[in-house]
Specification:
By secondary structure, the protein is of the alpha/beta class. The protein is built from 8 helices and 14 strands. The chain has 2 domains: about 160 residues, Rossmann fold; about 140 residues, Rossmann fold, CATH 3.40.50.2020. Helix 1 crosses helix 8 and helix 2 runs parallel beside helix 3. It is globular. The relative contact order is 0.13. The mean pLDDT is about 95.
Length: about 325
C-alpha cells in the first residue's frame, strides 16, 4: 500500500488539521466549495492513485449536507483509483434511527450505512456510536473507538472528591459503570419515562434517582447532548435528591436549539465534551470544556494504515 493521505470535507476541518499535525503529514488538498445553487463542488487536487485515503467527515448538523458531502467525496476517490478509502466519521448522524420501535418508521442508521458502502468506502472509523449494533449494519469493516480514555484521563488529572457517576437512563448504565470503575467511584442511575403520545421526539420526564447522591459530587456520563432537555432534567433531579456539585461529560456535543441556554439555567457546574463536531465559540469557558480526540483518531488511522491492532486504544 502506498502513501497515507488524509482529506476533509466542510464538517470539521479543524479536527482533520489537528489529526494531520499529530501525524506530521499535510492535509490533502481538495476543492470543497459549493455552486451558487448549493450543490457541493468537490475536486481532489492531489494524485491519490494507489493511496490509502482517510476522509474525516463527521455527519454533524446540518446532517443531510455533510452526509452528502461524504458520499460525493467517497465516490470521487473511488473514481480516482485510491487503493483503500476509509470514512472517518467521529459523529454518525441518524444513529438514533437504529431500530423499528414504532409502526411505519425507517431504520435510518442502516440506510446511511448502505449509502456509505455503496458510494465506495472500504472501511469506517467511528467514535462512540449511539447504538453499538450499527457496526453490524455495515458489510465492510468498522473500527469503533471510544472517547472514554480521553475522558478518564481528564478526570484523573482533575479529580473530584466524593464522586458518584450517574447514568442518565438505564441504556447508559454500562458506559457510566465503566467510568465509575476506572475512577474508583460509586454509581447511580436516573430512571426516566418518555411520553410516546407527543409528536416527534418526546421530552424525557425524570422519575427517580436510583442511588444515594445526597451530599455527593455527581458526574452525569452520556454519549450525546442534543437539545439538553434530558440532561438538564437529570441535573434537576440530582439537585432535588441532594447532590452537592453536578457535572457532566459527553462525547458528542450537538447542542441544537436552545440547548446552551438550558444548560446555563440548569444546576450544571461544568460540561466536558470532545471535538467530534465543531465547537467554535463554545470552548473554553468556565461552563464548557472541550477535549480533543485528534490524538485518538490519529493513532487509529496510523494503526489501520500500518495494519496493526486498533484495540490497544481501548485501554
Amino acid at each position: 500500500m502506498n502513501s497515507l493521505q488524509i482529506f476533509s470535507g466542510n464538517s470539521n476541518r479543524p479536527l482533520a488539521e489537528e489529526i494531520c499535525q499529530y501525524l506530521g503529514i499535510p492535509l490533502g488538498r481538495a476543492n470543497t466549495t459549493r455552486f451558487p445553487d448549493g450543490e457541493f463542488n468537490f475536486q481532489i487536487l492531489e494524485n491519490v492513485r494507489g493511496s490509502d485515503v482517510f476522509i474525516v467527515q463527521p455527519t454533524s448538523p446540518p446532517v443531510d449536507s455533510h452526509l452528502l458531502e461524504l458520499l460525493i467525496m467517497i465516490d470521487a476517490f473511488r473514481r480516482s483509483s485510491a487503493d483503500r478509502i476509509t470514512a472517518v466519521i467521529p459523529y454518525y448522524g441518524y444513529a438514533r434511527g437504529d431500530k423499528k420501535d414504532k409502526p411505519r418508521i425507517p431504520i435510518s442508521a442502516k440506510l446511511v450505512a448502505n449509502l456509505i458502502t455503496t458510494a465506495g468506502a472500504n472501511r469506517v472509523l467511528a467514535v462512540d456510536l449511539h447504538a453499538p449494533q450499527i457496526q453490524g449494519f455495515f458489510d465492510i469493516p468498522v473500527d469503533h473507538l471510544f472517547a472514554a480514555p480521553v475522558m478518564i484521563d481528564y478526570f484523573t488529572k482533575n479529580p473530584i472528591d466524593d464522586l458518584i457517576v450517574v447514568a442518565p437512563d438505564p441504556g447508559g448504565a454500562e458506559r457510566a459503570r465503566a467510568y465509575a470503575k476506572r475512577l474508583n467511584a460509586d454509581f447511580a442511575i436516573v430512571d426516566k419515562r418518555r411520553d410516546k403520545l407527543q409528536p416527534g421526539h418526546a421530552e424525557a420526564e425524570v422519575m427517580n434517582v436510583v442511588g444515594n447522591v445526597e451530599g455527593r459530587n455527581a458526574l452525569i456520563v452520556d454519549d450525546m447532548v442534543d437539545t439538553a432537555g434530558t440532561l438538564t432534567k437529570v441535573a434537576d433531579a440530582l439537585r432535588t435528591s441532594g447532590a452537592r456539585r453536578i457535572l457532566t461529560s459527553c462525547v458528542h456535543a450537538v447542542l441544537s436549539g436552545n440547548a446552551i441556554e438550558r444548560i446555563k439555567r440548569s444546576p450544571l457546574e461544568k460540561v466536558v465534551m470532545t471535538n467530534t463536531m465543531p465547537l467554535t465559540g463554545i470552548c473554553p469557558t468556565p461552563l464548557f470544556e472541550c477535549l480533543s480526540i485528534a490524538p485518538l483518531l490519529a493513532e487509529a488511522i496510523k494503526s489501520i494504515h500500518d495494519e496493526t491492532s486498533v484495540s490497544r486504544l481501548f485501554i
